[in-house]
Write a structure and sequence with these properties.
The complex is a heterodimer of chains A (about 950) and B (about 280). Chain A is mostly beta strands and about 950 residues long. Chain A is about 0% helix and about 45% strand. Chain A is built from one helix and 60 strands. In chain A, a hairpin with a 2-residue loop joins strand 24 and strand 25 (about 350-355). Chain A is elongated. In chain B, about 0% of the residues lie in helices and about 40% in strands. In chain B, strands 3, 5, 6, 7, 8, 10, 15, 16, 17 and 19 form a ten-stranded mixed β-sheet that branches. Chain B has a seven-stranded antiparallel β-sheet with strand order 4-9-18-11-12-13-14, with no helix packed on it. A two-stranded antiparallel ribbon of chain B has the order 1-2. Mean pLDDT of chain B is about 85; it is low at about 1-25. Classes of the chains: A mainly beta (about 950), B mainly beta (about 280).
Chain lengths: ~950, ~280
């Protein structure tokens, strides 16, 4: 190689000489060889060539000197190295480089050899070549060379000599004291050689291991290490040296997945699998790296929701851009067996921590520890791209380090809380709030120092990690009431005109008297009962609230354990109602005034709150309200009857053919008041009887008397927003019997009157109807007057089952469908799957429209009266659904009162399942309406729900 | 087939038992006896990878020797016929591999042509790449066919090649007989000046006649042993059979060390036997 380069150089020079010929003359002596000297010797008896020495920084610069006393084979001189004692002021170790200033061509050799001995048995930390005080591109290092007081020959192989055509680093070493004591060693006869008796050069990556890394993603850089070469020495043993990556040629089996550069750095560029291998001197190196990339990381594109503003004393933040954070030692303590990597990234300028390959991660905040004893909750926002299955979990462990503030010591406490899949979501920020009281084993939290996040989400982004307490004083105003003022009697609210002259803070001897009273919360007047045990409110004047249905109030208490509100009439007569505390914000409650029985609602004089133990309670928007009066003229037609026409004898209905003929719908029977008129009018396109300025009104088919003795009920729909009394009479010649209808109505009322209610009337010869109870000023609308046969086997009681069977109960009742986008009627159909727990033949079919409200449902008032009692407190219903969602059941009274629905979700789909509803808290007499919400959820599609076999028991 | 052995080689003949040379190079030209040979027996070890050597040519020695004494030499290995210890490589080579197992214990293999091919006089050669490492002892050698009735050393032994793995540049050729066996064998070493026997294939051979045994490496005659050279009865006048093995440890080579690379394989390209034609 050397000769060839000289020849090339000569040719190049000669050709340029030709061009320059005649311009100038040069002596051939000026030629400089383009290659470097091939001198083999480094130090035989002295420095060879342009060899120079430079000590490493921090080493004893005087460690090396030429020794003319000791040498190998009695030659003139050797190199002596004096390793300093530990902590020597001259330097803590010996180390330096012997380098050629111009470089040498070593491509003709295969090893660096030398002889070495030491003043004592010792281990030379590093010795080798290729360290040139610059790029150190071709470093070869023999680590841990044992030496003793006898000369021995050392062979350091050159892994690929063809690389070393201009090597400056001829020898380097670095070694520390032995057991803190210095010693000396000598090196002599240092030369590069072409040895014929070394063989089997073999390269290694990862020290010969086949590595696999499946947790790689686009953008990752992986530096291959454990790069080594070994040769078999003349003694038959292998000599292994650590070598620079530049000796290797690396390759990737699938370069479009990951590439590798000449420094052995793998760059991942796409999803997939590839294997990185290397060759050394043309021979495949032992060891490999197989990587499987998942591609570009998937992460949130929006910042986590910004946490609410809080007072400094009400939050201890570990990680948040909103609050001031306390010091956190580490967000990844890299505990043994933890596989997680952490990345601090920004999402929409918001700082977020990303955890990759998370099995568990230790987070420590021990300097100082965190005193969260006054805090009540822990918050963390998490985001994961991982799919959520039923078994997915996310776990938070908190540890208190105890009095010593350090791990161990027998005083550490910790507790782990598991967040289950129902609270998790893929691809969305999920705010997780855990009451600190849930960490039950964490009996102290004054020296919290460690948190461990774990679970089954290997890819996790977190933000807004903090402890907080819900402030005892609200930071926002209570919700502004929206009810029209004409339906409201306000006691305390900025939204209404209040009862004048009330004493908001009467001195009834309560503990918080001096401090309680109205205060401004976010600009809104609010009653503040601080240091509360009880508190009264004296109305400025007695109020008659008997025409109101409900008492509304908003209340807030994060530290109360019990709170009652009383309404008081003279006597005093007072009744408490229990309010749920503590609250996590403002709670609004609408209490039916019946709950305050036996308080005299026409003479309410005071309120009282009690139950406090020095707690803080805030109250606002205390008012009585009632539903708005319905319009005089109905805005919708009466419900369309569903009773089969075969069972009906119709008197007046667009749905059936009127039987009596002739029939006089508006006979004049001498009604006295001026302005009285009876007519058939059209309401929403439906013929309806209208009695204007009603006093009384008949309906006459005397020339075609009807025998209704084979019928069971009289049905009629009626509407009156202003009537105070209304009766309906059935009349046979010489006999009439009234039935009292409930008025006013809040809409169309449907009633099914057992014909037995008309005792005395000859049911086989009915000739007339009559309505009375008017005072000449009221408006009555009536529709769908018909007799019908009960196809059920008698009168429904709570011991019967609503089974929708022929001869059973339910199918003959009128079921109204509401809030269901067109309200398709409830159907009674063949059981779609007569198997399992329900093999009956007929079931109810409810079509829950996609555009319908979550609370779309169906109701009936035709079952009779539901007197829920201890023997009938459990309601069961069988459902057959294509989705899992809540099923709701509600009972209501004729005046509209209800405790509200109870919701139970089905868990099976496409199979019959019986759901159980416990109405123990709602046991009252007098419910006349049952409401079923078959699919109580916002729907992404129209769902058909079947239900059946509603029964009552204990 | 005729072979004329004449070679010019960097080499040195040295009567020292251990032969070492550094630094100097001596050119030598060797003139060999003119002998003509006819091939009478060979095994090229052709066959599928992982298969056993031809059972028509070779039988196994198994275990630790008939006296359970490491084949009389205190060798460590247990000989097996497992494919991992002995099998064809599918590329025309027989591979005998010494393996270090937990313990440590060692397994390897030894085959012989005893009862299948035995011959008196001729040229016996094999092309072999030997293993290396302290305590590794590869050998290509012969024993007298009457060994069962005329126990060693009376039956005679000719060691065409044996090597110590810690001296990868040296091969040894020897004869053993009554009065000159074991450590007193008539022996000579041959060393490579700047090379190693484990780095490539070499042809190891003896040419054996009525009153001589000539030892060759790659056609270079490095020793001749005649009845005058032996210190006892000349017993090399009956048919001999051949053996190939890789031993581990034993009194010829010494112990393997922690630094001995394992596994170690001997690659045999072929074995050929010729008869001299006049």
């Amino acid at each position: 190689m050397k000769n060839r380069q000289i020849i090339y150089a000569l040719i190049t020079f000669l050709s340029s000489l030709v061009l320059l010929l005649g311009c100038e003359t040069r002596e051939l002596d000026d030629l400089q060889p383009l290659s470097f000297p091939t001198t083999a010797e480094v130090f035989i008896d002295d420095f060879t060539g342009d060899l120079a020495y430079s000590a490493f920084g921090g080493s004893d610069v005087r460690a090396f000197q030429v020794d003319n006393q000791v040498s190998y084979d009695g030659s003139l001189q050797s190199m002596r190295f004096d390793v300093p004692d530990a902590n020597s002021p001259n330097g803590s170790y010996a180390g330096g480089v012997f380098f050629s200033k111009t470089g040498r061509n070593l491509s003709g050799y295969n090893a660096l050899t030398f002889y070495i001995k030491a003043s004592q048995a010792a281990t030379i930390g590093e010795i080798g070549f290729g360290n040139d005080l610059g790029a150190n591109k071709y470093v070869v290092t023999l680590n841990g060379l044992p030496v003793n007081s006898n000369w021995k020959k050392v062979i350091i192989p050159i892994p690929d000599a063809s690389k070393l055509i201009a090597e400056k680093g001829l020898l380097y070493y670095a070694t520390a004291p032995e057991n803190d004591r210095g010693y000396s060693f000598w090196i002599d006869e240092v030369r590069f050689e072409k040895l014929g008796d070394i063989s089997n050069l073999q390269g290694f990556m990862y020290e010969g291991q086949d590595r696999t890394n499946n947790a790689v993603e686009t953008g990752d850089k992986i530096t291959i290490n454990g790069l080594q070469a070994s040769v078999n020495l003349p003694t038959g043993v292998n000599q292994t040296v650590n070598i620079s990556p530049y000796y290797f040629t690396f390759s990737s089996s699938t370069p479009m997945i990951a590439g590798v550069d000449d420094k052995g750095v793998v760059s991942v560029i796409d999803a997939g699998t590839t294997t990185i291998t290397a060759t050394l001197g043309g021979k495949t190196a032992t060891g490999s790296l197989k990587i499987t990339s998942t591609g570009a990381p998937v992460g949130p594109t929006t910042a986590a929701p910004m946490p609410p503003a809080r007072e400094a004393a009400e939050v201890i933040s570990l990680y948040s851009n909103t609050y001031t954070n306390v010091p956190v030692d580490t967000w990844n303590a890299r505990y043994i067996f933890s596989t997680v990597d952490e990345f601090f990234i920004k999402v929409q300028d918001d700082d977020v921590i990303r955890y990759r390959n998370l099995n568990f991660v230790g987070i420590e905040f021990r300097n100082p520890t965190v005193d969260a004893s006054s805090m009540s909750g822990f918050h963390i926002d998490i985001w994961t791209p991982d799919p959520i299955s039923e078994s997915t979990q996310f776990k938070v462990l908190l540890a208190d380090l105890g009095a010593d503030g350090a791990f161990g010591g027998g005083d550490d406490k910790n507790h782990e809380v598991t967040v289950t899949s129902a609270s998790l979501s893929s691809g969305n920020w999920v705010g997780i709030d855990i009451p600190l009281s849930s960490f039950t084993s964490l009996t102290s939290r004054s020296k919290l120092g460690q948190m461990v996040l774990s679970g089954t989400l290997p890819n996790l982004y977190i933000d807004n990690v903090y402890f907080y307490k819900i402030p005892t004083k609200p930071t926002v105003a209570a919700p502004t009431p929206a009810r029209a003022s004409e339906n409201v009697l306000s006691v305390f609210s900025d939204a209404y005109t209040n009862v004048a002259g009330s004493d908001l803070n009467p001195n009834w001897g309560q503990s918080g008297f001096s401090t309680s009273g109205p205060t401004l919360i976010a600009g809104n007047n609010t009653l503040a009962y601080t240091n509360f045990n009880y508190q009264g409110l004296q109305l400025g004047s007695s109020q008659n609230v008997s025409s109101f249905g409900f008492l509304h109030l908003d209340y807030y208490s994060t530290n109360a354990t019990s709170l009652n509100v009383f309404l008081i009439s003279p006597g005093p007569v007072e009744t408490p109602f229990v309010l749920n505390v503590p609250t996590s914000g403002w709670n609004s409650v609408d209490i039916p005034l019946s709950a305050f029985s036996p308080v005299n609602l026409s003479d309410v004089i005071q309120f009282k709150f009690d139950g406090g133990t020095a707690s803080d309670v805030y109250v606002d928007n205390i008012y009585f309200w009632k539903n708005p009066a319905p319009p005089i003229v109905p805005t919708s037609a009466a419900p369309v009857p569903t009773t089969p026409s075969a069972d009906v004898l119709s008197i007046f209905s667009d749905s059936y053919t009127t039987v009596p003929s002739p029939i006089d719908l508006t006979p004049y029977w001498g009604q006295p008041q001026a302005g009285y008129a009876a007519s058939v009018t059209s309401i929403a396109g439906n013929n309806t009887l209208y009695y204007d300025n009603f006093n009384y009104q008949g309906l006459d088919f005397a020339t075609d008397p009807q025998d209704v003795s084979s019928y069971d009920f009289l049905h009629l729909d009626y509407y009156s927003a202003n009537a105070t009394a209304l009766n309906v009479y059935l009349i046979s010649p010489g006999a009439e019997t009234p039935f009292t209808l409930t008025v006013p109505t809040s809409g169309w009322s449907s009633v099914n009157i057992p014909l037995s209610a008309f005792a005395g009337v000859n049911l086989s010869n009915v000739i007339q109807f009559k309505f009375d109870g008017g005072d000449g000023t009221k408006d009555i609308y009536v529709d769908n007057i018909y007799f019908y046969k009960n196809t059920s086997s008698g009168t429904f009681t709570l011991n019967d089952v609503i089974n929708f069977e022929s001869g059973g109960f339910g199918a003959s009742w009128t079921w109204n469908v509401f809030e269901n986008a067109g309200n398709p009627p409830l159907e009674f159909v063949a059981n779609p799957d007569p198997s399992g727990i329900n093999t009956s033949s007929t079931v109810a079919k409810f079509t829950a429209n996609q555009a319908g409200q979550p609370y779309a449902g169906t109701e009936t008032t035709q079952a009779g009266t539901f007197n829920l009692d201890a023997a009938h407190k459990i309601v069961k219903i069988m459902v057959y659904k294509t989705v899992t969602s809540d099923v709701g059941i509600k009972f209501a009274k004729p005046d509209g009162f209800s405790f509200g629905e109870i919701k139970v979700p089905n868990t099976a789909i496409n199979a019959w399942q019986e759901l159980t509803f416990d109405f123990t808290a709602q046991l009252q007499d007098g419910y006349n309406q049952i409401v079923i919400f078959p699919d109580f959820t916002a729907r992404g599609a129209t769902n058909v729900i079947y239900f059946d076999n509603i029964r009552f028991g204990n | 087939m005729k072979i004329k052995s004449k070679n010019t080689i960097f080499a040195i003949i040295n009567s020292l038992l251990l032969f070492m040379l550094t630094g100097c190079e001596i050119d030598a030209v060797q003139t060999l006896p003119d002998r003509s040979w006819q091939l009478v027996w060979s095994d090229d070890f052709d066959g599928a990878a992982g298969t056993a050597p031809n059972p028509d040519n070779w039988v196994y020695d198994l275990g630790t020797g008939p006296n359970n004494d490491g084949w009389g030499n205190g060798e460590f290995q247990v000989y097996t016929n497992r494919p991992e210890n002995i099998s064809l490589d599918g590329d025309g080579k027989l591979v005998i591999t010494a393996i270090r197992n937990a313990g440590p214990s060692y397994t390897s293999a030894r085959i012989k042509s005893k009862g299948l091919f035995e011959q008196k006089f001729g040229r016996f050669e094999a092309r072999i790449k030997t293993p290396t490492g302290p305590g590794i002892w590869p050998a290509f050698w012969m024993l007298g066919s009457d060994i069962d009735t005329n126990p060693w050393p009376q039956c005679g032994e000719i060691d065409i090649m044996e090597q110590r793995g810690q001296q990868s540049s040296i091969t040894v050729g020897s004869v053993h007989g009554p009065g000159y066996s074991g450590g007193n064998a008539i022996s000579k070493s041959y060393g490579l000046v700047n090379g190693r026997f484990d780095a490539d294939y070499f042809i190891y051979a003896v040419e054996w006649g009525e009153d001589y045994v000539d030892f060759f490496v790659d056609g270079y005659l490095y020793n001749r042993i005649t009845p005058d050279d032996v210190t006892g009865e000349w017993v090399f006048d009956q048919p001999f059979y051949m053996l190939l093995n890789v031993a581990v440890g034993g009194n010829f080579v010494g112990f393997p060390t922690d630094g001995t690379p394992f596994p170690q394989s001997m690659y045999i390209d072929y074995v050929k036997v010729y008869r001299q034609i006049q």
